[in-house]
From TrEMBL, chain A:
<comment type="function">
    <text>Required for the activity of the bacterial periplasmic transport system of putrescine and spermidine.</text>
</comment>
<keyword id="KW-0812">Transmembrane</keyword>
<keyword id="KW-1003">Cell membrane</keyword>
<dbReference type="InterPro" id="IPR035906">
    <property type="entry name" value="MetI-like_sf"/>
</dbReference>
<feature type="transmembrane region" description="Helical">
    <location>
        <begin position="12"/>
        <end position="37"/>
    </location>
</feature>
<protein>
    <recommendedName>
        <fullName>Spermidine/putrescine transport system permease protein PotC</fullName>
    </recommendedName>
</protein>
<keyword id="KW-0813">Transport</keyword>
<feature type="transmembrane region" description="Helical">
    <location>
        <begin position="136"/>
        <end position="156"/>
    </location>
</feature>
<dbReference type="InterPro" id="IPR000515">
    <property type="entry name" value="MetI-like"/>
</dbReference>
From TrEMBL, chain B:
<keyword id="KW-1003">Cell membrane</keyword>
<keyword id="KW-0472">Membrane</keyword>
<feature type="domain" description="ABC transmembrane type-1">
    <location>
        <begin position="90"/>
        <end position="296"/>
    </location>
</feature>
<dbReference type="InterPro" id="IPR000515">
    <property type="entry name" value="MetI-like"/>
</dbReference>
<feature type="transmembrane region" description="Helical">
    <location>
        <begin position="177"/>
        <end position="198"/>
    </location>
</feature>
<dbReference type="GO" id="GO:0005886">
    <property type="term" value="C:plasma membrane"/>
</dbReference>
<keyword id="KW-0812">Transmembrane</keyword>
<dbReference type="GO" id="GO:0055085">
    <property type="term" value="P:transmembrane transport"/>
</dbReference>
<protein>
    <submittedName>
        <fullName>ABC transporter permease</fullName>
    </submittedName>
</protein>
Length: 267, 310
């Protein structure tokens, strides 16, 4: 209370509200994580520390299958989305504006604007037709759907990195008689790599977290971790769901921290 | 080389560059056309077909999908009556989305202001703290709220343990629960654009207005809010649009009775077995969202040109 000077930027009550908001944001998540370590069969009454729910989740065949499926889909979709997003970023950045570039932007960002439930319904109908025509029931549908909605998330960090990149190194390489392919492979790609990694991580996280589209597109027995959890919520829940949430949360936070480190390197 | 020849070479280079731009973007555009944009056209077509007996559709034209958005057919005399249940769901969706936007603004503005006025190091930390929930799984965050307010949840257990109540308070599966959940999960979407706007705000303007004897309230209303308006508009859109299409939060916190339009759409594709109605509702939702986005672009452009002239 030493400094009682009038501070222009201070608005009364704002700091209190802000601190309460942060508490309200974190307390529910922290209790969710806390009760994953509960020794009792309860999500609200503490009965001592235990790792038994993690062990239970680990041994649960349905959880194992869902986790493996989630990781497979996220890996494939992130790979596909990042590859095509990298090409699209190269095609739309650092060249003079051309007719249709605005259209390409809108197309790429379209999954960010259309409500997920509408895309989910649209894919349910489309894949229903394809399933009937081909008889194929595999994970391909989920990979295709995830690849599409992950594209903008992969594209944005790659484009940001590319837009901030100086073209002089590539011009220098070309001056030294490097072929366009050699220039791309030895100069552009290494410089762009952090952006590509960041885009891939974001795409991976987005795919891993998806509920709505997956819920509508999956065939029977194709639960991912989030849709498995959604299904569990109808029943009397045990801390096993908390344990799965905690693991998923830990994976997400780890990837995001890596993402921030990668994108910060620039400056 | 003559100027005309260089001009021609330049034009050829531009054409080649544009062609490469399209070629490089083609794979992404193909995937998006097949699995994001194209399917929306099928939804439009399905909204004009006849429902099949066991779901799906039969290939006969029928406007019933669209009529069913507002009306239902009387089972006995086949007349059309206004479907109150549908109107209730639309009204709930709009009401809860608007209230979510208002609540997140009321809480998000002070929070964004607080973050923007911290010293640089602390600011990065607070900003990171608001970004983590933004990127973490929406289902897990909704689930955290579920565990707090359910009958055997934290709040009720604490109150019973403290001896304040004997029967759990019923908080979950109410409109209030959905509202609290949506405000909780979408708050970061409001704070981030508000922060971006406040961060660019020149605090010397406040000094000037205080010097001119403006009260705090006058400063807030007449100086700060008009200048950060683009951030307010962006945040409101970012919260309102996903709220309107929300599916997970009302399902987990609202249960079967407090449906929003997203759950109502799903119902048509499951027990409802009325795919054309579900398709019509989806297109309707899409149009409303598109209108909101167009308004946003208008407002953002208006705000920019105002700033330029003012």
């Amino acid at each position: 209370m030493a400094d009682r000077r009038f501070q222009v930027a201070r608005l009364p009550g704002f700091a209190t509200i802000a601190v309460l908001v942060f508490l309200a944001l974190y307390l529910p998540i922290l209790t969710l994580v806390g009760f994953a370590f509960n020794a009792e069969n309860s999500i609200s009454v503490w009965g001592g520390f235990s790792l038994k729910w993690f062990a239970a989740a680990w041994k649960n065949q349905a959880v194992q299958d869902a986790a493996l499926r989630s990781l497979t889909i996220a890996t494939l979709s992130a790979l596909i989305a990042t590859s095509v997003a990298t090409l699209a970023a190269l095609g739309t950045t650092r060249r003079p504006a051309f007719r249709g570039r605005g259209f390409i932007y809108v197309m790429i960002n379209q999954p960010l604007m259309v409500p997920e439930i509408v895309t989910a319904v649209a894919l349910l109908i489309l894949f229903g037709i394809v399933k009937q025509a081909t008889g194929y029931q595999g994970l391909g549908y989920l990979v295709a759907a995830h690849s599409a909605f992950c594209i903008p998330f992969a594209y944005l960090p790659i484009r940001a990195r590319l837009a901030g990149m100086d073209a002089s190194l590539e011009i220098a390489a070309a001056d030294l008689y490097a072929s366009p392919i050699a220039t791309f492979r030895r100069v552009t790609l290494p410089l762009l790599a952090p952006g590509i990694m960041a885009g891939a991580m974001l795409a991976f996280v987005i795919s891993l977290d998806d509920v709505v589209i997956t819920e509508f597109v999956k065939s029977g027995g194709q639960d991912t971790l989030p849709t498995y959890m959604l299904g569990q919520m109808r029943r009397a829940i045990t801390p096993e769901v908390n344990a799965i949430s905690t693991l998923l949360l830990a994976l997400t936070v780890a990837l995001l921290t890596a993402f921030f480190l990668l994108t910060r390197q620039k400056d | 080389m003559t100027p005309a020849a260089t001009g021609q070479a330049e034009a050829a280079r531009r054409r080649a560059s544009a062609r490469n731009g399209w070629l490089l973007s083609a794979p992404a555009l193909l995937i998006l056309t097949l699995f994001a944009c194209g399917p929306l056209l099928i939804v439009l077509v399905y909204s004009f077909l006849t429902p099949g007996q066991y779901g799906n559709v039969v290939g006969e034209f029928s406007p019933d999908g669209w009529i069913g958005v507002l009306y239902s057919r009387d089972i006995f005399d086949d007349t059309l009556v206004l479907a109150d249940a549908h109107l209730t769901i639309f009204w709930r969706s709009v009401k809860l989305s608007l209230m979510t936007t208002l609540i997140t603004f009321a809480l998000g503005f002070p929070t964004a202001w607080f973050i923007a006025t911290r010293p640089p190091k602390a600011r990065a930390m607070w900003l990171f703290l608001i970004t983590i929930p933004f990127w973490t799984n929406l289902l897990i965050r909704t689930f955290a709220i579920n565990e707090v307010i359910r009958n055997d949840g934290i709040i009720n257990s604490l109150l019973i343990w403290a001896g304040l109540i004997d029967q759990p308070l019923r908080m979950i599966y109410t409109d209030g629960a959905v509202l609290a959940g949506m405000a909780y999960v979408y708050l970061p979407l409001m704070v981030l654009p508000l922060f971006a706007a406040i961060d660019r705000f020149d605090m010397r303007l406040l000094e000037a207005s205080y010097d001119l004897y403006a009260s705090r309230w006058a400063c807030l209303r007449r100086v700060i809010l008009p200048i950060v308006r683009p951030g307010i508009v962006a945040g409101s859109i970012l919260v309102f649009v996903p709220s309107l299409g929300a599916y997970v939060t009302p399902r987990v916190l609202g249960g079967g009775k407090n449906m929003m339009i997203g759950n109502f759409i799903e119902l048509q594709f499951t027990q409802g077995r009325n795919w054309p109605l579900g398709a019509a509702l989806s297109i309707l939702l899409l149009v409303v969202v598109a209108l909101a986005l167009i308004l946003y672009v208008r407002a953002a452009e208006g705000g920019e040109s105002e700033g330029r002239h003012g």
